[in-house]
Amino acid sequence: MNNPRSQRGGTLLGFVLGLVIGLAVALGVAMYVTKVPTPFSNKNQSRSAEQDAVENQKNKDWNPNGALQPKAAASAPEPGVVTPTPMPAVVPVETAKPEVKPAVQADPLGDLAKSKAGLSTPPASNSAAEPFTYFIQVGAYRSIGEAEGQKARMALMGLDAKVSEREQAGRTVYRVRLGPFEDKASAERLHAKLDAGNVENTIVRIQR
After folding, report:
1. Is the pTM of this model over 0.85?
2. Mean pLDDT of 73-81
3. Is 184 helix (H, G, I), strand (E, B) or coil?
4. N or C: which end of the chain has fewer CB within 10 A?
């Protein structure tokens, strides 16, 4: 039969060997991991003071709107250096030629003569074409009193009559007339108005 003590000793020895082997494997893995850089381990590595200063300067000068702003203009030229300016392209533009008008010379004497000629020549009127002057006679009386009475009746109608005397068959006759009228149409209109008012009248035509 096996000795219980020897069994316990073998078990303990195996446990110790396993523990030693496990520690050795863990130590080897740890040494390999520390030698190979990883992205996670690099973040925790310490940086030098010079690297920190460069990083701070970059953060200080950083502009969040830099991508939206136009590029900076070219640096100013040094004093004494003349930078040639590019000439713009010249596009020919057609311009209409100004119309040349003949010079107008003033002629005051001619203008004065024309103005006088215009004043001396009366405008043409209907009277020049009409060879007669027209009157409307509303009565012929033997006494001046009767003639003045008829003139007063015409005045009440708003008409301006005139009394004139003339020898007829050896007797003096006093005529009451309206006018003169330069055209026959005007005389005929008043003639019709007097007829409508039951006033006897006659159109008299006299050669000019």
Report:
1. no
2. 51
3. helix
4. N
